[in-house]
Design brief:
By secondary structure, the chain is α+β, with helices and mostly antiparallel strands. 32% of the residues lie in helices and 33% in strands. It contains 4 helices and 21 strands. The longest helix is centred in the N-terminal third of the chain and has 46 residues. The protein starts with a helix and ends in a 15-residue tail after the last strand.
Length: 406
Amino acid sequence: MPSEDIGRNVQRAALAVALVLLLAFVIVYLSRLHAEHKLARETRAAAAAIPTVDVVTVRGAPAGGSLTLPGETAAWYESTIYARVSGYVAKWYVDIGDHVKAGQVLALIDTPELDAEFAAAKAKLQVSEAQVKVKQADAAFAASTYERWRDSPKGVVSDQEREDKKAGNAGAAAQLEAARAQVNLDQADVDRLSAFEQFKRVTAPYIGTITERRIDIGNLVTAGSSGDTTLLYRMAQDDPIRIFVDVPQSAAPDLMKIGIPAKILTGAASGQSISGAITRTSDAIDPRARTFRAELDIPNADGRLVSGEYVQVAFDLPNNGMSQVPAAALVFATSGPRVAVVGPDGTVRFQPVTIGRDDGNEVELSSGVSDGERLVLNISNQIVAGQKVQVSSNEPSGSSVAMRAP
């Protein structure tokens, strides 16, 4: 084939490829342009459409309600028992879970060093008592001698000798008093060691239950309760039992009072509640948590509650005229909490409110809303004041403020 024909064929092929590429580019460009125009139309339509929102209608609060808060049980008494004397554990008589009486022996400590000191102190006391008898004899002799010299006629004995016998009598009396004082001192030492001897028997301070044992026979125990000293026992008395509840400050006007009734709910499968009442409160707000401590004393003769147990405490609250709304209706801003109110014409306005109580899912408002107003739930940040909205036909079930959180 001539070279001129080959060149023309190559040119025709290159032109065909270029036309195909150009046609593909035009098709892609037109498709993309169509998609962009369609997206722009849909965006304009969406922007022009009225958003649909869920609302809740404000109604009057019921006659009363309940506030349920977490609580914790604590023993009436809880004690850690340490050794009062140093020695070795000779015997232990009770273990964890045992119920003990006041004064019951829990363990016996062998104290050879204390026993030796006690014997030495008693021997020293006997020596001191014998010294008193010697000094009594010396004092009696000095007193009689002085009486004879004192009553002797003048000129028979000299004044110097008479004064000497007088000083001897006074010195003997002083030595007798010193001997008696030493007896008292030695007796006090004996009494002290005798008291320590009683601590060889570790006893229960009150009626309760042993919750922990840390000793065994032969263990070396040291007197004291420092951080390096091992405790012997831990015991508790749980009848009655205390229940601690941290109450939010919003409930202080209603619950910072003695005698407010409550129901204690445990995790037991029976689901039975225990009736009680507030026995005491801290009567002050903790500035760190904005709560105050309330305590309930519950009779616990049957042992239904144990120390350290998690419970729920439900308080009955009076009707104080506040309106209850779901927490989802609140909008928090730098100026404070607000709600989005939908007017009769479908226009949104933001209304500042005051929170009276916060129960978690439900919030009670003391001001800012009125009966019959519709509040937007979970409002979008794209909705602004004065914007028209469309109310959903299905109002969320259970969101009515006529119901209080249990």
